[in-house]
Design a protein that fits this description.
Elements (H helix, E strand, L loop, with lengths): L2 H4 L13 H5 L15 H9 L15 H16 L3 H8 L3 E10 L5 E12 L5 E7 L5 H17 L5 E7 L8 H15 L8 E5 L5 H15 L22 H16 L8 E5 L3 H12 L3 E7 L2 E4 L6 H9 L11 E3 L1 H5 L5 E4 L18 E3 L8 H9 L3 E3 L1 H4 L2 H15 L5 H26 L3 H20 L2
Parallel strand pairs: 3-4, 3-5, 6-7, 6-10, 10-11, 11-12
Antiparallel strand pairs: 1-2, 2-4, 7-8, 8-9
Helix pairs in contact: 3-4, 4-6, 4-17, 6-17, 7-8, 9-10, 9-15, 9-16, 10-11, 15-16, 16-17
The structure holds nicotinamide-adenine-dinucleotide.
Length: 470
Amino acid sequence: MSMEETVKESPGTEAEPADESTERATAPGHGDRPPRRATERETLKTAESPASKDEMPPADDMTPFEAVNYQFDCAARRLDLPHNLQVALKTPFREVMVEVPLANEDGSIRTFHGYRVQHNNARGPMKGGLRYHPDVDLDEARALASLMTWKTAVVDIPYGGGKGGIDVDPRELTKTEKERITRTFVDRIHQFIGPNEDIPAPDVNTDAQVMAWIVDEYSKFEGFTPAVVTGKPLEVGGSPGRESATGRGVSAITARAAADHGIDLDGARVAVQGFGNVGSWSARFLADQGARIVAVSDVDGGVFDGDGLDVDRLMEITGAGDSVTTVEGAEPISNDDLLTLDVDILVPAALGGVLHRWNARNVRARLVVEGANAPTTPAADALLEERGVTVVPDILANAGGVTVSYFEWVQNLQQFRWTEEKVDEELVAIMSRAYDAVRDTAAEHRTSLRTAAFMVAIQRVAKAVQVRGV
Ligand code: NAD
């Protein structure tokens, strides 16, 4: 569906559903209806359509790539970029899709699809995570690769954007099978990645172990090359501080935004959706600053305690492979209800699209800090803004991970190890500078933090494209 077609479904102009409870059952994230997937032609059309001069209200059934391009357009309109440059900036540089077969014990074969989208390399090699999840597809990879281009530019590190993954549910794989599909994927994309080309990293359901397998497999083709990925174990060139980096960045940015909005972090009530890498470390560092983490969740559900949950205990439980829902002495809460709790700060840190037009009106937090990538649809964004809820966008809030990935890559290239203190200190300095740039741009242009973050990023990438030439 094109942007022009989606205009008809503006949340500001449409009639409310006759029966919201029945509509909810089919709304995104609420059950039966699978997320709409656009054809390739449809999603690329959004890259080809330069920002219109007219304000286009957002619909809620955009694909992930359409949604990122909508956000791009909101910023590009304010920057008055030439149309041809807008199209060049939105269009992915390269897209790779490969078959990833897995032979079962009984001789049968399961076939998955592996993707790597390389969005832009004007400011440096492309950089971004690898996700193992059944919903992974080309459109999602395009969207997340594009977000990485803008994210690396917001924090001003010398990278472009890339993203990829395999459409597999790792819960259905043994560890050996996970290793085998990782190696097969690398065998088939190794010529497209590398320390000066494209540097993958962990994302949903991938971790340091997966990165170690990638180093090993890639090194069979190119010689020992730890800098081909980041987020590695320390033993093969990982950086101290990388595992907790995204959460540390989320908490640093939350502290700055809370202060700007008159919220005292000491005692502030915080709900965190998702208790994986990003959610758990965000909760830990926010609790260290005095925040009360009243609710957390994972794929199995959530838990609530108005007096504050014991984050260390929760990390012990998840570290042992169990769900947060097994913690003693807390009330159960659903993932949906967690998002609309009466809290000061909400940190969505699981999957994309969880805040949408069906629940945005019910969000009671004053500040939403996007730990996850793309957790807020453009329609929800508009509703939250209308209601005075400040959203700190993903490309700023969760950039701590890629920032320490940059430090890891630098250490690999220099063959020199930094201390954890140096990593943490440099991370907070970079995040703080990025926050200042985005906040000041938002104030100057009287716009949201998201549009301001895109404006800062687009200007940097546009200048690089223009000086390099095409
Ligand atoms: P992870 O796999 O470590 O954790 C994901 C968490 O989300 C788990 O607790 C899982 O149980 C939960 N979850 C999965 N499906 C869910 C569902 N349907 N409802 C509720 N919870 C669900 O992944 P992560 O690395 O923490 O990534 C989380 C998000 O943060 C993703 O959007 C990712 O792209 C983004 N991100 C990650 C990093 C990083 O450094 N890991 C950096 C930037 C952004």
